[in-house]
């Protein structure tokens, strides 16, 4: 008789949860279940970009060929963002950041579909909105809003910014360790920034002098005081993804007081944006841990946005999805290499590897948002601001995903042997 499988429950089927599910389902000793609150896996109608580092992970997971079919750019070096001053009558280019292998762009729905297509049968469970979990003898019981329940050996919270798993984990730790300060980390705070998002058919893009609009050729960052616009093509160049950020610095940390994501009118954004949406960008305090016993956090549930004091945003480096994928890759690597015997050590190895990197990206991202809106210490000094922006992406090449996985496995081996 074969040994019972180790049961991993993934709460939330966004990019992070689905990447983890696909990566874990390759291991024969692991049973994977994804519990998604919605009736199906879905992404919003917008673009997502990843960098060469994340592309490498997709290669290591054996998925790159499938992702290549749904990206509109050949991953080639030296494509990056062009930065323009755009809040004055005559705009001008003041910076260009070339990236190794450029930015690789997708329609979000197509991106998610590749993970969905690689999920083995029986892994996905829909309409399963987690309400709470309870640690029983040797297992964790999950309770869902539809009145059903399930059991697992490890719960991974991939349930996004409003994570139920994170909230319960922090409440439990605050009570156990008499640390009321942890309760302040539960609720995300508004950053004072609103992002307007939408897609524009490329054929509708206006061109002042009859020439091809520059956004159709190069990913663009249109910068102004307290606002900036990110625009790049997806879907084989037929669609332009558009995100306009508007910041009110004095509103940082206040309650937003409404729905965080709503539809908005074209009048509020641009006539040509199809079905625009309005996002109140929220941030969380940096978490001191990702793991509590057999419960672990990943992706936006773990670290999405920022530090209370420093106000960090991963959004500005186009890295939230990439970081969630890297979380999934490292967690799958250590779980794949261990059985239940060394589970605590595996989770500790995941935490020690990911926490410092994720926090570093958060910090760089926060600073980048300020730089794009001329609110950093460089202000409008283009000659120093440009290179400083380039350095913000340093984390992409300072290590490799394989190296990070090897580091995590080394920590696991050391902890397991000690
Ligand atoms: C304006 C903007 C632009 C961005 N652009 C980029 C970019 O270009 N590149 C990039 O890398 N990142 C980008 N990001 C960040 C990126 O989108 C996120 O970091 C990423 O999608 C997070 O994935 P996730 O799986 O952790 O969470 P989510 O995508 O939020 O998925 C969470 C899932 O959990 C489900 N769920 C929630 N609660 C429960 C529950 N209680 N029970 C069961 N299921 C539940 C939800 O239905 C959802 O399916 C951007 C973010 C913003 C706001």
TrEMBL record:
<keyword id="KW-0274">FAD</keyword>
<dbReference type="GO" id="GO:0044550">
    <property type="term" value="P:secondary metabolite biosynthetic process"/>
</dbReference>
<protein>
    <submittedName>
        <fullName>Glycoside hydrolase family 3 protein</fullName>
    </submittedName>
</protein>
<dbReference type="GO" id="GO:0016491">
    <property type="term" value="F:oxidoreductase activity"/>
</dbReference>
<dbReference type="InterPro" id="IPR051104">
    <property type="entry name" value="FAD_monoxygenase"/>
</dbReference>
<dbReference type="GO" id="GO:0016787">
    <property type="term" value="F:hydrolase activity"/>
</dbReference>
<dbReference type="Pfam" id="PF01494">
    <property type="entry name" value="FAD_binding_3"/>
</dbReference>
<keyword id="KW-0285">Flavoprotein</keyword>
<keyword id="KW-0560">Oxidoreductase</keyword>
<keyword id="KW-0378">Hydrolase</keyword>
<dbReference type="InterPro" id="IPR002938">
    <property type="entry name" value="FAD-bd"/>
</dbReference>
<dbReference type="GO" id="GO:0071949">
    <property type="term" value="F:FAD binding"/>
</dbReference>
<feature type="domain" description="FAD-binding">
    <location>
        <begin position="7"/>
        <end position="364"/>
    </location>
</feature>
<dbReference type="InterPro" id="IPR036188">
    <property type="entry name" value="FAD/NAD-bd_sf"/>
</dbReference>
């Amino acid at each position: 008789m074969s040994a019972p499988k180790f049961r991993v429950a993934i709460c939330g089927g966004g990019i992070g949860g689905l990447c983890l599910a696909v990566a874990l389902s390759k291991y024969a000793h692991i049973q994977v279940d994804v519990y998604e609150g919605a009736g199906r896996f879905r992404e919003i109608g917008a673009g997502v970009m990843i960098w060469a580092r994340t592309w490498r992970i997709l290669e290591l997971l054996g998925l790159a060929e499938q992702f290549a079919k749904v990206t509109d750019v050949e991953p080639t070096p030296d494509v990056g963002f062009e930065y323009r001053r755009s809040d004055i009558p005559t705009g001008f280019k003041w910076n260009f950041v070339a990236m190794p292998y450029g930015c690789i762009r997708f329609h979000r729905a197509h991106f998610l579909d590749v993970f969905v297509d690689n999920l083995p049968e029986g892994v996905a469970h829909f309409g399963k909105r987690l309400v709470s979990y309870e640690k029983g003898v040797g297992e964790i019981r999950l309770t869902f809003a539809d009145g059903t329940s399930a059991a697992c050996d490890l719960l991974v919270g991939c349930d996004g910014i409003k994570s139920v798993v994170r909230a319960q984990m922090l409440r439990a730790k605050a009570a156990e360790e008499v640390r009321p300060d942890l309760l302040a980390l539960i609720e995300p705070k508004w950053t004072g920034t609103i992002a307007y998002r939408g897609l524009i058919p490329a054929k509708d893009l206006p061109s002042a002098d009859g020439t091809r609009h520059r956004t159709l050729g190069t990913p663009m960052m249109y910068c102004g005081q307290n606002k900036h616009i990110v625009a790049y093509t997806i879907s084989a160049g037929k669609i332009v993804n558009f995100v306009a950020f508007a910041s009110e610095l004095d509103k940082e940390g206040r309650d937003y007081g409404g729905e965080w994501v709503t539809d908005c009118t074209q009048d509020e954004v641009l006539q040509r944006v199809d079905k625009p949406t309005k996002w109140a960008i929220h941030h969380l305090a940096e978490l001191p841990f990702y793991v509590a016993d057999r419960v672990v956090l990943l992706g936006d549930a773990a670290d999405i946005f920022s530090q209370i004091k420093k106000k960090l945003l991963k959004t500005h480096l186009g890295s939230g999805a990439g970081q969630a994928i890297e979380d999934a890759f490292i967690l799958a690597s250590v779980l794949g290499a261990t059985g239940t015997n060394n589970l605590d050590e595996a989770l500790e190895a995941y935490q020690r590897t990911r926490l410092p990197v994720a926090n570093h990206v958060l910090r760089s991202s926060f600073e980048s948002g300020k730089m794009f809106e001329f609110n950093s210490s460089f202000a409008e000094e283009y000659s120093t601001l440009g290179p400083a922006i380039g350095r913000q992406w340093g984390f992409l090449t300072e290590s490799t995903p394989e190296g990070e996985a090897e580091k995590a496995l080394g920590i696991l081996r050391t902890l397991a042997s000690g």
